[in-house]
Amino acid sequence: ARGNKTIYLLVCVVLVFMFAWLPLNLLNIFLDLGLLNNLLGSSSSYRLVFSLCHLVGMLSALANPILYGYYNQAFQKEFCTILCIQPNSPPSQEIQPGRTQETAVRA
Fold first, then answer.
1. 65-92: per-residue pLDDT in tens?
2. Could you give the C-alpha distances from 78 to 3, 67, 86, 99, in angstroms and in order?
3. Which residues have a Cβ under 8 Å from the Cβ of 21 and sit 6 or more positions away?
């Protein structure tokens, strides 16, 4: 089960990276071949299309921590520790309103 999750994680990371950077690479290939010269004749339209394609590519960097967090339980645990969140804490350890930490531990 753990090996399968690792494989799914790697496949997802590769697919996200590939599809995120595909538009920018296709834009560059089409521009090099001269196929988009008429469509992107002005400098401002080229900059806009390039910026959008580059933004989509950079979103792969945003997707990576989300994917790692979804597939890796050790990552989830450390992330919760950093944010001071108690993952899956049993209800008996929750502090009820009007009680202090010390009285909750004794109860």
1. 888 887 777 877 887 888 877 655 555 4
2. 20, 15, 11, 29
3. 57, 60
pLDDT in tens, 49-68: 899 999 999 999 999 888 88
SS3 of the chain: the string is CHHHHHHHHHHHHHHHHHHHHHHHHHHHHHHHHCCCCCCCCCHHHHHHHHHHHHHHHHHHHHHHHHHHHHHCHHHHHHHHHHCCCCCCCCHHHCCCCCCCHHHHHHC
Answer whether 87's CB lies under 8 Å from 80's CB: yes
Tokens 């950079």 found at:
58
- Residue 23 binned pLDDT confidence (cut-offs 50, 70, 90): very high
